[in-house]
Amino acid sequence: MGPFKLLIDGQLVDGASTMSVINPATEQELAVCARASKAQLDQAVAAAKRAFPAWRDTPIDERRKALNAMADAIQGDLQNLARLLTQEQGKPLADAMGEVFGAAAFFRYFASLDLPEKVIEDSDARRVVSRRRPLGVVAAIVPWNFPLILMAFKVPAALLSGNTVVLKPAATTPLSTLRIAELVKDLLPPGVLNVIADANDLGAAITAHPDIRKVSFTGSTETGKKVMAGAAEALKRVTLELGGNDAAIVLEGNDPKATAGKIFAGAFQNSGQVCIAIKRAYVHESLYDAVCDELAILADAAVVGDGLEQGTTMGPLQNKTQFEKVLGIIEEARGQGKVIAGGLPHEGKGYFIRPTIVRDISDGTRLVDEEQFGPVLPVIKISDGEDALSRANASDYGLGGSIWSKDLDRAMDLAGRMDTGTVWINKHAELAPNIPFGGAKLSGMGTELGEEGLSEFTQMHVINMAKG
Ligand code: NAD
Fold it and tell me: CB of 153 closer than 6 A to ligand 1?
């Protein structure tokens, strides 16, 4: 597959240079793809700017049709896209298929929304209406853990509301996004969607670009802060979906086996590289040993390997930097708790770490307090839900969290006081295109998905007319 070119002004073009993309399961070069220069970024922004007035004035039904056609194109290439995603990102093929399918569904969801005019007042004195107008050129910056689904949080919402887009995937996972550029290039007028790839070096130029009106960013908190600072000069809008350290609070009365299975799934999906993965489990002392034992059984049973191989349930870490970071966190945790499953990288090629469970560990350690973003879960013993809630809330992060209890009133009470954007009860990490999503504290700013997410791509425009 290939040749993995940039999409600028409706044309697939070579990059000013090229870069190598590594398969994390083999550490071999998977493909060489286009790498944009700063001049090509400027060309992409200029094309988006030129395309904006006509796209803004295109009837919303036409924009809807374009989004549905894009969804069809993505879904129609399901097999190719999923294989590519597995090879560049590492996740098992079934999960990659789910991501591609999900991305198409998100395009369809946004195509179903409307941006209706609202009558705020219609009295003898005046008629006041509000409308939602597009902003102009929107930059969409995406990380490497879910290249396609996170792209689909942004691109269809931006396009439906009449903006034009410059999309940039992460340096280590550009291929599936460039493949989509190739698939959809004739479905939109030139310049409406531009896709560039970089070697992690164009972000600052994007956020500071005077002709970009909004940056929709998903990535780490550290980079998010730079995005906000870079956007300040031109006072461009930002939506920041950043890191997290989600706590799961498991109260007395839960069935250890059933709960452990769900906790395991919530912690280890995508090898733990999920912003809303369970990153610390606070488990009541009455079921602590049983939950730890069950988690260890599930960890030992995981089939860790190349995502293309049938039967693999967990792939590698996506890149070497993350692999080494997670190994470092595990090493440190060894002296602070008891590793009861996993804990070692496998021998040979590939950034594989077996799912790792650490028990008898507490807050104040790097594994519990930081965002590990990898396949290692600390399990902390608690004697009281209130105490667990205050420990969960002590984090600088506030993305998601969950309460696990048979007593739903109690669960609702604790959930209502958790300082996060989302709290799940008796489940974790469920996202859907119609459910707004966003982080509190250092986990971000603004909302994606749902009607609220759509409106963030618009400017409120009020017309206030005198009567009588
Ligand atoms: P990252 O911040 O290193 O990179 C994210 C993107 O930003 C990449 O495309 C990168 O090239 C670009 N970038 C780099 N420097 C930039 C700059 N100065 N200005 C603008 N853009 C720049 O993050 P990552 O390591 O790729 O992803 C992992 C992180 O993303 C984790 O912290 C994870 O929790 C977070 N994440 C958050 C969500 C969410 O919705 N809240 C979802 C997924 C991942």
Answer: no
